[in-house]
């Protein structure tokens, strides 16, 4: 492409509403434009990167034997009622009626539609296993769309669905997709990690997420430094603590003026947060409230605690009115002593002797509290977030925590959808068997943002070469004035094009400083500057986007030089 014919300019100023670097850079580089909350247009520069991501995904899905198809984005409510998700899926599901008053949804995912196809088309175990995929637009009415295309409402997903006659075959199909995902993200030049994950609203038992590692990632992931254990923090298990020591102090009520938080409490009593417990009241599933007790230095894990019997799912903090009705106190002063409802303590909180807790009275605490003596013994469960240094659930080493952006998610669904929707085939004995299913997603548009989030510097994007909108930018100086510069620039443009290397020619009548700044903002991996002075001795100036300095290369070897320096 010739930049002189590209009408969209780069932006110097940082758009005010863009919080993360990838969002800022995608706007500044003219890759995307916002239409409304969570809705983005992909401009030509952005679409080129997106298409490269799509291309790699398509190639690897095809290589793994998956078959591409395309399903409608609009889906009839009947299918969602059959799977029972019509009522379970919250307001993220955009529902509407057509002119005949029939109910529809804009698909946030396609399990129902593909299961309907499978039950109509697949008759015999001989047709299995099979894996269908599409690269298709999804809509999720996200409560807080943000970070540009990273958490949009309309986005592009690669979704694949596999069908199997038994669990062993599902296992094999799942592993094949795992391998395909490793190849996909490796080819894209991204640093990533696969971690055990929660099934969320899709469901299923076995699932793993693929995360691009980046400090700005919304997810925390825990991985062991001593074994292969890796899990989303939502799921990362914490082990039961060592046995509780014997009580050694008497229970005492102490006045704690102006103490509102654990930090205040520790400062006032000169104790460590690990000696205190926090009490959180959440809605129970029987219109009651449940007390969740966590050690003062730990955080409650919502995904684990909402699975506890008697706790409402999704987890909701009890309202101030309910808290007062249940304890007579406000949220800042709660404690388990005297609480009449159901109580769960995290393993670590259940293992503290002589602990400090709220007394259900403003600015009063108990010290020297002991389970089984001052209050009933407690059900000890795993419901806190793992922290750095916790022993690895895998058995050796300890946990490290990193931030990640979820770009892919693979699930073993088992018979969740096929049973609800009666998707069966005949087995070898001509007996109808319910198929086993797997499903496998990649956030195609999110991958582009995640790649930028991981690869940038103060001057702009640094594309991994495999997904760069262009691999090389030619920057002629005085293209409009020097016949020699123009001739060499045009010739190189043809040479790179002929070699199948996507090349951008900055033939604008602009100052060199502007061209250099744009080439860095756009993040094109290779840059060649063509100037009259260098051409005098047959030289060009080459610089890789990751290098800090330029080198001279002979005009004749430009294409070879770029090829030799590729994919760094
Ligand atoms: P998240 O936890 O980020 O909300 P999810 O678990 O709901 O994602 P899946 O149902 O597993 O997402 O969808 C498959 C993939 O689609 C995700 O791994 C992610 O990369 C992408 N994705 C999901 N929601 C969005 C969104 N709002 N915007 C862009 N990509 C998304
Ligand atoms: Mg997910």
Structure, briefly:
With 568 residues, this protein is an alpha+beta fold.
Question: How are the SSEs ordered, and which strands pair?
Answer:
Layout: H1 21-28, E1 32-36, E2 39-42, H2 44-63, E3 67-68, E4 74-76, H3 77-82, H4 85-88, E5 94-97, E6 103-106, H5 111-121, E7 130-139, E8 154-164, H6 167-187, E9 192-196, E10 206-213, E11 219-224, E12 230-232, E13 252-255, H7 262-269, E14 277-283, E15 289-295, H8 302-305, H9 320-327, E16 342-346, H10 347-350, E17 355-358, E18 364-369, E19 379-381, E20 399-414, H11 416-420, E21 424-426, E22 432-434, E23 436-443, H12 444-454, E24 456-457, E25 460-461, E26 472-476, H13 483-498, E27 503-505, H14 512-522, E28 526-530, H15 532-535, E29 539-544, E30 551-554, H16 558-564
Parallel strand pairs: 3-7, 15-16, 16-19, 26-27, 26-28
Antiparallel strand pairs: 1-2, 4-6, 5-6, 7-8, 8-23, 9-10, 10-20, 11-12, 11-20, 13-18, 14-15, 17-18, 20-23, 21-22, 24-25, 28-29, 29-30
Helix pairs in contact: 1-12, 2-6, 2-12
The structure holds adenosine-5'-triphosphate (ATP) and magnesium ion.
Residues 200, 209, 406, 409 line the site of magnesium ion (MG).
Could you explain the architecture of this structure?
- By secondary structure, this protein is of the alpha+beta class.
- The chain is 26% helix and 28% strand.
- The chain has 16 helices and 30 strands.
- The strands form 8 sheets. Strands 3, 7, 8, 9, 10, 11, 12, 20 and 23 form a 9-stranded mixed β-sheet that branches.
- A hairpin with a 5-residue loop joins strand 11 and strand 12.
- Helix 1 (21-28) packs across helix 12 (444-454), helix 2 (44-63) runs antiparallel to helix 6 (167-187) and helix 2 (44-63) crosses helix 12 (444-454).
- The radius of gyration is 29 Å and the shape is globular.
- The two termini are 23 Å apart.
- The structure holds adenosine-5'-triphosphate and magnesium ion.
- Adenosine-5'-triphosphate (ATP) binds at residues 109, 140, 142, 151-152, 155, 157, 200, 202, 406-409, 441, 443, 445-446.
């Amino acid at each position: 492409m010739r930049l002189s014919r590209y009408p969209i300019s780069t932006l110097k100023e940082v758009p005010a509403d863009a919080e993360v670097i990838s969002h800022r850079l995608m706007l500044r580089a003219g890759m995307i434009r916002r239409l409304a909350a969570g809705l983005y247009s992909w401009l030509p520069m952005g679409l080129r990167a997106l298409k490269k991501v799509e291309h790699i995904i398509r190639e690897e899905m095809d290589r793994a034997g998956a078959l591409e198809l395309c399903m409608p984005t609009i889906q009839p409510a009947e299918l969602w009622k059959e799977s029972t998700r019509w009522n379970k899926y919250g307001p993220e599901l955009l529902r509407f009626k057509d002119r005949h008053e029939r109910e529809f949804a804009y698909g946030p995912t396609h399990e129902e539609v593909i299961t309907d196809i499978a039950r109509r088309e697949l008759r015999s175990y001989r047709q299995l296993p099979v894996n269908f995929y599409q690269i298709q637009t999804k809509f999720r009415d996200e409560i807080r769309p943000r970070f540009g295309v990273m958490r949009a409402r309309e986005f592009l997903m690669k979704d694949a669905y596999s069908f199997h006659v038994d669990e062993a075959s599902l296992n094999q199909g799942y592993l094949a997709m795992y391998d395909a995902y490793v190849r996909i993200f490796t080819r894209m030049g991204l640093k990533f990690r696969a971690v055990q994950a929660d099934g969320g609203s899709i469901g299923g038992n076995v699932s793993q997420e693929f995360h691009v590692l980046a400090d700005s990632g919304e997810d925390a992931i825990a991985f062991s430094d001593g074994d292969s254990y890796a899990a989303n923090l939502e799921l990362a298990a914490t082990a039961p603590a060592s046995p509780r020591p014997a009580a050694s102090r008497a229970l005492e009520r102490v006045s704690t003026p102006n103490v509102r938080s654990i930090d205040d409490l520790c400062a006032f009593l000169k104790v460590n947060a690990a000696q205190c417990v926090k009490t959180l009241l959440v809605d129970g599933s029987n219109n009651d409230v449940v007390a969740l007790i966590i050690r003062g230095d730990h955080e409650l894990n919502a995904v684990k605690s909402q699975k506890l019997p008697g706790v409402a799912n999704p987890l909701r903090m009890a309202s101030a009115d309910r808290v007062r009705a249940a304890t007579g106190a406000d949220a800042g002063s709660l404690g388990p002593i005297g609480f009449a409802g159901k109580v769960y303590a995290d393993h670590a909180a259940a293992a503290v002797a002589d602990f400090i807790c709220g007394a259900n009275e403003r600015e009063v605490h108990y010290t020297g509290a002991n389970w089984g003596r001052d209050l009933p013994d407690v059900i000890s469960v795993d419901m806190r977030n793992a922290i750095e240094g916790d022993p690895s659930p895998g058995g050796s080493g300890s946990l490290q925590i990193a931030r990640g952006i979820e770009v892919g998610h693979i699930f073993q669904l088992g018979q969740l959808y096929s049973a609800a929707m009666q998707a069966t085939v005949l087995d070898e004995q001509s007996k109808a068997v319910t198929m086993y299913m797997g499903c496998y997603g990649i956030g195609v548009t999110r991958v582009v943002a995640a790649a930028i989030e991981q690869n940038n510097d103060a001057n702009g994007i640094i594309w991994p070469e495999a997904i760069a909108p262009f691999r090389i930018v030619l920057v002629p100086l005085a293209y409009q004035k020097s016949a020699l510069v123009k001739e060499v620039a045009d010739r190189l443009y043809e040479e790179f094009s002929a070699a199948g290397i996507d090349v951008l020619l900055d033939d604008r009548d602009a100052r060199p400083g502007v061209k250099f700044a744009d080439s860095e903002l756009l993040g094109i991996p290779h840059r060649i500057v063509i100037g009259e002075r260098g051409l005098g001795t047959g030289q060009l100036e080459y610089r890789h986007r990751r290098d800090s300095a330029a080198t001279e290369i002979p005009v004749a070897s430009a294409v070879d030089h770029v090829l030799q320096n590729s994919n760094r």
